[in-house]
UniProtKB/TrEMBL annotation:
Subunit structure: Homotetramer.
Lineage: superkingdom: Bacteria
Protein name stated in the entry: aldehyde dehydrogenase (NAD(+))
GO MF, one annotated term: aldehyde dehydrogenase (NAD+) activity
Native source species: Pseudotabrizicola alkalilacus
Any coiled-coil regions, as ranges: none
Length: 500
């Protein structure tokens, strides 16, 4: 299919994707595939007011009924999986299987949220006073602003939207300027679900805003948007987080990662190599969970590097629509410039570089393609401690597990981590309080490709937010503690006497 067919199959009409000021390019070949109309920042107050009005109605709809809307969204996503997956490939450059996988992640979170819609419960707590009962109730918060990044252009919205909706909140979504088309197509899918759902869903429940920082800033600044969920760079989160906090809003931040794998002497190296290659070069190294640092025991270090350089040399790089391709394009030229600059910095710090060259032969003209880079480092330098959103894997050696864990933790980010070992003591030490300091810590599996069900997010500069699984729903609700007195007395807690 050519670009126009993919856009059409995803339900985008010529009128919707032309005549505007925002040019959207496909990373596959750099072609401009749309000119979109941007949201006028001056319209943001009205848009937010619509969301507030929707909230007043939606919060009174019973949660299991709200779950029905998300169930329908899941059904519509199943029907649209191929078309939306192909559009993710076109707009974000992901290989076909990963484009489809992203839509599957949307379906999975819908299923999760439907179940959750019947499980929004709080505790009952024993009261110290006779004839009293204590409990906690979870209530909706209000409009949730979702700011998402190019690399998971639709799944991250769905993580937030599926939970926010069952929790009783409207959603306003600001996608990356690089990937607004997949957002528009997702909204069309949502609209089909809303239509089937019927009148219980108020107008303005799910809104989309297209444009640059000004529209995002309007969401971040508004006290009428009590929750901001922002995914992207640590730099972006460092601006958004304090602004939301200054107006007493709540933010859910999912920012940079600098994810490591420790490979111990007992590791199954065949499995480790497969995990390393997928997590380091999958999505062309553009996942926040991508493997960026390999900490290998010195006894297996040389063997591992040898196996990896061989595996890297065999990886098909090119058009992500071709079934055999494993490494698609980087999102844009700026991304390759940054990758090349970081490789040079690592080299100047003593790094031994394998691969990492631009690829221009056998790839679509106009796209930005690279060989993944493997860089042997004698130490964890400043360059290694920085997140570069590209397929660079730094390899370091270690002698003791303590040293490996210290290296793993000695970066500003704290998203994902893992260890390959068949030694129970090592595995459990890695997962213990003195082990990995990340939000995600795995054993014998890579750091990327987390499934729906577990809470997703991390510590330190990763921002501390948790999304999608476990009790992440609590981030979209306010907790109310209730004490009910069914006695005819009015005893005070802590035995305080106040007689008059
Ligand atoms: C991201 O890169 O922003 O665990 C999210 C993973 C995916 C999500 C990544 N399920 O790699």
């Amino acid at each position: 299919m050519d670009h126009a067919d993919i856009l059409k199959a995803a339900g985008l009409t010529a009128a919707e994707i032309s005549g505007g000021t925002l040019a959207v390019r496909s990373p596959i070949d750099g072609a401009v595939v749309a000119h979109l109309h941007e949201t006028d920042p001056a319209d943001m107050p009205a848009l937010i007011a619509r969301s507030q009005a929707a909230f007043k109605a939606w919060r009174t709809v019973p949660a299991p009924r709200r779950g029905e809307l998300v169930r329908l969204l899941g059904e519509e996503l199943r029907a649209a999986k191929d078309a939306l997956g192909a559009l993710v490939t076109l707009e974000a450059g992901k290989i076909t299987s990963e484009g489809l996988g992203e839509v599957q992640e949307m379906i999975d979170i819908c299923d999760f949220a439907v179940g959750l819609s019947r499980q929004i419960y709080g505790l009952t707590i024993a009261s110290e006073r006779p004839g009293h009962r204590m409990m906690e109730t979870w209530h909706p918060m209000g409009p949730v602003g979702v700011i998402s990044a190019f690399n998971f252009p639709v799944a991250v919205w769905s993580w937030n939207a599926a939970l926010a909706l069952v929790c009783g909140n409207p959603v306003i979504w600001k996608p990356s300027e690089k990937t607004p088309l997949t957002a528009m197509a997702s909204m069309k899918i949502m609209e089909r679900a809303l239509k089937r759902f019927g009148d219980d869903a108020p107008e303005g429940l799910c809104q989309l805003v297209i444009g640059g920082p000004a529209v995002g800033e309007a969401l971040v600044a508004s006290t009428e948007v009590p929750v901001i969920s922002a995914t992207g760079s640590t730099r972006m989160g460092g601006i958004v987080g304090p602004k939301v906090a200054a107006r007493w809003g709540r933010s859910i931040l999912e920012l940079g990662g600098n994810n490591a794998m420790i490979v111990a002497p007992s590791a199954d190296l065949d499995m480790a190599v497969r995990a390393i290659v997928f997590s380091a070069v999958g999505t062309a190294g553009q996942r926040c969970t991508s493997l960026r640092r390999l900490i290998a025991h010195r006894s297996i270090h040389a063997d591992l590097v040898d196996r990896l350089t061989k595996a890297y040399a065999s990886l098909p790089i090119g058009d992500p629509r071709t079934g055999s391709t494993l490494i698609g394009p980087l999102v844009d030229q700026a991304s390759r410039d940054k990758m090349m600059a970081q490789i040079e910095k690592a080299r100047s710090e003593g790094g031994v570089v394998h691969g990492g060259r631009p690829v221009t032969e056998g790839v679509p003209h106009g796209g930005v393609y690279v060989e993944p880079a493997l860089i042997e480092m004698a130490a964890q330098t400043d360059t290694v401690r920085e997140e570069t959103f590209a397929p660079i894997l730094y390899v370091m050696g270690y002698d003791t597990l303590d040293e490996a864990i210290a290296l793993q933790n000695d970066v500003p980010q704290g998203l994902s981590s893992c260890i390959f070992t068949l030694n129970l003591r090592e595995a459990e030490t890695f997962l213990s309080a003195g082990g990995s300091d990340c939000g995600i810590a795995n054993v014998n599996i890579g750091p990327s490709g987390a499934e729906i069900g577990g809470a997703f997010g991390g510590e330190k500069e990763t921002g501390g937010g948790r999304e999608s699984g476990s009790d992440a729903w609590k981030g979209y609700m306010r907790r109310q503690t209730n004490t009910i007195n069914y006695s005819a007395q009015l005893p005070l807690a802590q035995g305080v006497r106040f007689e008059f």
